[in-house]
Amino acid sequence: MPAKARLESKLSKQTQLFGHKVKEGPKKKAGKGKNSDEAAKFTAKDFTVLVKNVSSGLAEAKHEQDYPVVRTFFSAACRWLETPTAEANPVIGDAILKIIKSVFPPAAKPPYDDYITEYSLNCLSQAVEDGRLEKDVVGEQMISCLFDILRTGDCSTARRLQILSTLIQLLTKSNKNKALINADAFLPRLKALAALMRQAGDVESQISIMQILFRLLPKSSAGRVNFAHALGLPERLAEICGDHFHEDVRSFLKLINSGNDGLSKCPVFYKVREIHCLITGHLAPTKLKIPEGLDTFWLDFDVDGISTEVADPDEGETISLHISYEKLSDWRIEEEPGGYKLFLALKEPVIIAGPDGSQQDDPPTTNKLTVLIEDDPAASAIDESVGRILKGRDVVCFDLFALPRAQLTALY
Q1: How far is the C-alpha of 112 from the C-alpha of 110, rounded, in Å?
Q2: Domain coordinates of the chain in residue numbers?
Q3: I want to staple 95 with a disulfide (CB 3.0 to 4.6 A). Which of 8, 51, 383, 412 is the partner?
Q4: How far apart are CA 262 and CA 104, in angstroms?
Q5: For 179-188, what is each residue's pLDDT tens digit?
Q6: What is the pTM of this model?
Q7: Can the peptide bond before residue 349 be classed as cis, meaning omega within 30 degrees of 0?
Q8: CATH for the stretch 3-256
Q9: CATH class entry, domain 268-411
């Protein structure tokens, strides 16, 4: 019998108890199905036996890279944790947590699997967020595993960001998890994280790492300086303040990235005064707003594209815009009083909306942006830097420098 059939057979009892098939989609609270009385009677022993039986099928599915089976298990695990029985018996959460841990190194045999990490972290983060798994318990079991995956460098950028987000979640308001990471035995992993910040090819990863390090900073000034020295980082780390976190972190990252040229090494970034875009179907450009919690825009030139954060023009939600270099068709930089104007035209439009707006039948999109970059020492050679970044990656980009202004205006 194939792994998928075996695992679904072992999940059949759970399926019957909840009165619906185990699948992805909106979560249904326990006890709402037609067999809610039976589900309420499902004992802790029943759960632990079920989890134990399922684990062997999950291991085989992982080996065979049968992702629908793996996704089915983690979807079921999230629903098990919602039951009153699971809430009253921590042993059930412990059993599920052990299975989640089993798909990570060092318990999991190579090769590393990015997709399975995604499914397991989704389950883990949701359970912690909803309070179904204790943050301190999860930290004790998982923090070392997550750091070790980052240290190996096997994961994709998207998965790295997900792991960093999970670590931030586990450290927030958890003194026990902070103490675990600040222990002397954990120092090699922290040094590896600091090294990853220097090597990361995207600013978002760097800022996420800084969020982790900021949560671990000692309270005293001397302790902060010693912490920076231990990790081989500039003493400026000790000066980062929570009230001005984003501005302080960008200032710190300028030191870390000072040797980056945007080509042989990334990322580089610039402070932005305004961003305008021409929304499809509109005649006049729209001035985008700064996201809540930020003091300014930033334009990041990462390894694989250009990134920035803006506010949804309608809802106000924070939107992360990422434009791969391959999607750029036209570009131009002009110097103007107080800064520089960067014109970007895209081969394909990007959605200018938050999660809700993106699901509309006709979400707002744009394929033309104008970015007003502030004049500071970092931007003094921006025309040369941007040209080097784009041309150095063999981007098929129509160089507009030679175009007359009348033609340029017509394009934008």
Answers
A1: 5
A2: 3-256, 268-411
A3: 51
A4: 33
A5: 999 999 999 9
A6: 0.83
A7: no
A8: 1.25.10
A9: mainly beta
